User: What shape does this take?
Amino acid sequence: MKNLLFVVAIVFGTLFQGVNVFAKPGDALKSLPVQDGGRVKPYDSFAREMLEIVYGKSTYEKRDATEIVMTWMLSPQAWQDKKIFEVRNHQLLQALNLPMDQRYFTGEQIFVNEHFNLLRQELQAKRESKEKLNPYFQALQRLENQFFVFQEVASGRMLKVVPPKEGNAWISVADLDSQYQEKFMGLTKSFIAYLGAMAKNEGVEETAQNLDKSVLDFKEAAKANNPSVYVPDAKINAEVLYNSFHPFRWAYIFYFTAMTLLLLVWTLNKEVLMKPMWLFLLAGFILHTFGFSLRVFIMERAPVSNMYETVIWVSWGVILFSAILQFINKFRLILVAGTMVSAFALVIADFAPAVLDPSLQPLEPVLRSNYWLTIHVMTITISYAAFFLAFGLGDIGLVYYLRGENENQEKIKAIVNGIYRAMQIGVAFLAPGIILGGIWADYSWGRFWGWDPKETWALIALLGYLAVLHARYAGMIKHFGMVVTAIVSFSLVIMAWYGVNFVLGAGLHSYGFGAGGLEYVSAFIAAHMLFVIYVAIVRSGRKKVAVRS
Amino acid sequence: MDKAPGSKKSLLKKLNKPLASVKIAVFVILSIAVVTAVGTIIEAKYDSYAAKKLVYDTWFMFSIFGLLVLNLVAVMVDRWPWKRRHAAFVLAHIGIIILLAGGVLTMKFGLDGSMRVGIGEDNSFVQSSETDLVVYTSFDGDRYSKTLEQEVDFFKNPPTEKQPFIIPAYNSEIKIVDYKKYVLPSRKVTAGEEGKTGAGLRFQIQNPNVNVIEWIVQKKPNTLATHNFGPAQIHLGSAPEKGRGANEIFITPQKDSSLQYVVFQKDHEKPVKKGVMKEGDSFDPGFKMAMQFRVLRYLPYATEDWDLQMAEKPTPLTTSAVKIIFEGKEHWVLLNDMVKLFQKNAVYLLTYGNRRIDLGFPIKLKNFEVTRYQGTMRAMAYESVVDIKDLGERKISMNEPLKYNGLTFYQASFQEEMGKPVASIFSVNHDPGRFWKYLGSLVMTLGIILLMWFKHLDFKLARNKTPKNGE
Assistant: This one.
């Protein structure tokens, strides 16, 4: 692991050394190092995260977060009547006496509201009782945080831009001494000039270059204060690139294209399309790997510490496993299923930032520099990839059952074979993964097995698939049974993967807890269950007809 | 297996056949899945202790595991004599059995406790999750002897009015009549019996920024009870002649139920203020921050009790409590708390709490350090430096436990007050099953990998036996 990190660091280090090739004039501001949330990050990431917290999106009316957040600080009054605070919880809206059909509100609407202070006291009382916060209080807590973040950004206390001579807390814009104050004024002046030029659409190039120059000027001066803690440009540039490039978005676009081509090959029998399909698949996979490696490079750790990162990792594993199985079995539907579920997972990761947090966060103490942790999480989650693939194949299998069991016997047999293999791969990773989890727990808590909900649910998922494999061995389930259980058992994986952290919210794996998305996940599972039941009914109906005739 | 003649062997196999059924295996696997799933839901709703008591450490959980082992053994007997293709499944199954055996060893002979050591302090007791009831008896009010020590599990077998838990006492009995799993305690002080209990004082310290209202109760008559209020200490009891270099207020009960007050300041040896006051009176102690000290209530004889608010679910603030009836009087005792019961000729000291196991050597916490993520209060890592007599100074951190005397000390967490760490919490552990668990894991993993290797020879055979039917 350490060696791998080292190689990645060298490759990317040289790649992003010096000037970022993708940058255009006016972009230098994005890579201004700032300290926030326990690490030094580019201003670009800082601004996106702040806007995300307050507004729930990383752009505001198509304007970049970098611009919005800077203007919060430069002229907070201008934002007083803008609807930038997102409130989604209906109960909270009711308590604030605000219209329920809106989602965004102005600061005056919420914080000048006499209810807000009462609600804050209510929240404080709830916190003191140390009970778990329900969705209403979570929403209230978020609102308090939105208020705090906006206030702090506006006052200049949030944006910390100069490294300290001693200690490790950087100096915020509000606390800069006169020398730096002046330099920062220069930066803001050219920023305003640049905005003005953009609005009028004249002299953009020139003001942009001016802005870049004053940013570099400020960086130079800030670095001089304590060069040893100023993060190298390569890292900052890599993160800015990561923010703007969206490698995972490109990956799923390529996967979708590959899937479409595969379907064309399948339906129209156009063998020639196989080559471009492989090309797209490979391109997607390379981008996927690239994005993953970028996160490794920026954070110096294996990125499997929250839901978002495991979704990325699992979708990567799905492509890998389906490509391997395709090579062995020469059965293309495996790749169709693989690209389908992988792209699906990546799309979800891309469109649900409120639930799957894509920001780069430092780790909790227990998770730091722990070899076994990384290994056990990666092993367990990669097994989910195999089960996910089996699930995708199960879906396709159901479609074939609907289209006619007798006509598609060959295909169904091949699908079941793929499901069986995928389940085997999954079990072969999940069982050792759970054991590795035990070793980790033994290593850092002194307890091999403690019935912690996360590990217990991983075990339950394993038991589910073991039951399926044994039942097939005993002849209790046949082809249709395998297709059905591939889908049904995956709900155990969803529970272990998502449910424990987002529904149960208990146990020692508390660093991965989150909220939200429950209604969508439940609907997803329910829809599949209904599909399974529907196909089962149709199938048994057909059988009865067949028997009668 | 014994080398029995063929006929005997086949009889054994015949008897064994139903037990070796894969259908039983599927049933067992699914039962474990369902039962543990219920366990996780209970843990989410209540806490891990409840899940352990209600699901994981129960006879039905053990029976399912027993059935699993029986089934695993039976299958292996059924396939005897083993061939090469059996290697995978035999290894996987033996691995599971060894793993479970390791688990049993841990449960029977292991220790899994926790230990809190304050910075600069030492401790030699490990607290485990079992609960004990201990009674000390004294006939002269001075020397106590242990008259009862018994493990109790009130969570599973709660005492009730009808079926109380009875502890014999001299000419009488102590009855435990109720158990509450989750209560929110708050202290309550009531008038006690003359001569047996100490005095109680409810005071208020107030200025525009501070408003503190507290009780101080003497444990015994004429002893000193103290309330530490950051910049100053308030004592109930007799005052010394000279100050001790701190801001202190002494309130001394007088015979006529008035109170004498004496105030010392940090930099004066002699008292700066003296006077007499009654319930309801107040005075300004003359500290730097202007404030008023008021006596709200004074009881010459006071006993402490708990006011309990029942809770449905546990929170970090709830605890459990038992209700005791002795000589017609009710007392509530919280977990890890004690109560004194008086009789004409005897005094009983009853404690109810987690078992404390003496390690036989103290652990001194020399130093504790937290490193935080730059510019935040978020902990990045923490480590303790401990001192053990025969070992010297050692470091314990998140991934570097300390092994000593068959015990392993892990850095579990720490306690913080006002943003500063005050104590380190270790989990202390002795696991005789560890070797078997690792061995079992290894064997089982080997089996699973082999299973992949041998593909599905066994499955192919099974499929050839059963004729295809329309699937």
